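Hi P.,

Sorry for the delay on this. The queue was packed all week, but I finally got your sequence through. Input first:
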Amino acid sequence: MKSKLAVLSFILLVAIAGCNKQSAEKPKVDELRQVGKYGGRLTLATLSDPKSFNMIIAQETSTTNALAYLFEGLTDTDGVTAEVRPKLAESWTHSEDGKVWDFKLREDVLWFDGERFTADDVVFTFNKLVYNPAVPNSARDVLTIEGQAIKVEKLDDFRVRFTLPKPFAPFLRYVGESILPQHILAESVKAGKFTSTWGVDTPPEQLIGTGPYKLVEYKSGQRLVYRRNLSYWQLNEEGERLPYIEEIVVLIVPSLETHPIKFLNREIDAFSMRGEDYMTLQPKEAQENFTIYDAGPATGTLFLAFNQNPDHLARAKYKWFTDLNFRRAMAHAMDKQSMIDNIAFGQGYPQHSAASVANKIFHNPNVRKYEYDLEKSKAYLRKAEMIDRDGDGVREDRDGNPVRFMLLTNSGNTVRQDLGVMIKDDLAKLGVQVDFKPIDFNVLVTHLNSSFDWQAMIIGFTGGVEPHGGKNLWHSSGSLHLWHPLQKSPATVWEAEIDELFERGAQELDQEKRQQIYYRWQEVVAEQLPVIYTINQASLYAVRDRFVNLQPTAYGGIFHNIEEIYIK
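Then the structure:
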C-alpha cells in the first residue's frame, strides 16, 4: 500500500472503495475455483463511491482506497513494523550528507498493458505531475523542502537520482508516492487536461497501473470488482507469481449500520467494527466462525473544526471562529468519556493531541487538555462577549447576532453522526444553536477543498508514523490546511511557528531532537485549537476464518499484505 499522506477519511476501511460507471463481463464461477493457494473471492464493503480515479490529485480516502491495489511507489511502509521497505525500487544508496539518493529500479515490472516500467515513469510522475503547479496534489506539499522542489533525473532506464536541497528525514517514506505511466498520461499533461483525466467515468481497462490487482468493473452505488494481475512482479518463495486471491469485490454500502448485517449474512468477509458492533458480534464469534481482532488505538484522528477562511465566511462567524475564547469554550463542551461510553461502546480512547496515541514515537501525552466542563465553557463564551442578551435561551454576540452555525459531517458514518447529535445537544445547554446536517462524503470534501463553503465540520484524517505526512494539513500553505488553506503567508503567529517546526522536523536527522520538535507542534495545536479533538476509536476488525497469512494492525488494516493472503 502507498505511504500515507494526510487525506480526508470517512471510515476505517478494510479494503478499497470503488468507482466507474462502465462494467466489464463478470467472471465465470469456475474461473474462481481454487487450485492450491490460488483462486477464490474476497468480498468487502465501503461507504462511498470515489470522487475520482486519479491518484495524484486525490485528497480523500474514497479515491485513494479505491485505487490502492492498482498503483505502487518506489518504497512502501510495512503494515506491521511501519518500517520503509523496497517496492518498485529494489535498492538505493545516498551521499554522506543525505542530499543525493540513487534508486535502482526493478527490471521485471510491467504496466497492465504490457509496457515495461522504467525510470521515465518515475521522472514523469515527479517532474510533470507532483511538481507541476497546474496539478493540485497533496504530495507536493510534503515533498517541498523550504519552498524548493527535489530534483529528479534519469541516470539510465532503471536508475533514478533524487537531489535534495537539504537533508530530509522522511524522504524515503514519502518517495513512496504512486508512480503513474508516462506513455498513457503524457499527452493529457501536455494538453493541460490531466486533472480531468481518469475520472470516475473512465472505463476500468484504461486505468493502467503496476499493482497486484486491476479494476475490471465499477457500478456507481453498487460495487467495484478487481481481478488478479497475472503479470504482477512479486513472487512467493517457490518463485510463483503473487497474489493468490483471484478476485476482490467491494460493495458500496452507504451506512455503517448495514456492514455488520451483511457480515453476519456472509455477504462480506470482513469489516472494520464500531464499538456497538463489537457488543453485538463478540458473543457470536465462535459459533459463526469468525475472529475479532483488536489492533489497539486507531492511527487516525477525529475532530471538530471551524472555518476561519476570511474570504469564504460571513464576517460575524469569522469573528467567532477566530476567537480563541470561543474555540476553548467548544473544547470544554466535548464530553469525551460519554462519547466513548455511548458512541464507541467503551471501545475508544480520549484524543487530546494532534498525533494519535497509536504513534508510539511522536505522540505527546502532556499537551494541554480540556476536561468536559460546561461552566468553563460558559466563562470562555462570556470572555468572547457572547451572552443571552434578550432572554430567549440563545446567546448573541456583541452585535446582537445569535450564536448559531451549521455543523456538517458525512452521512452513513453513524459514529460521526452520533457525535454531531451529542455536540448539538451539549452546545444547546450553553445557549449555542447548532444546525446539524450529515451529507454525502464526496459533497463534504467539495465544500472543504473546493467551494470552501462550510462553517463547522466533524471529520477525520488518516494518520501514520511520520508527522511530516500531515504537512499538507498543518503548514499554512497546505491544500488541506482546512480551516484556512493555501495561505500565501501565515495568518497568525502560531501558524508561522507550526510552519517553522515542520521545516525543522523534516531536516533534523537525530530522532530524539525530531521528537521534541513534534512534541512542540502538538503543544501549539492544543493551545490554539485550530481543530478540537474528540475520541480515538479502537481498531477492531471482524474477519471470516477462511483466510491464511492475516496480520491485522491499526496502521495497515486487515489486508495490507493482500499479495500473501490466500483462502483456505
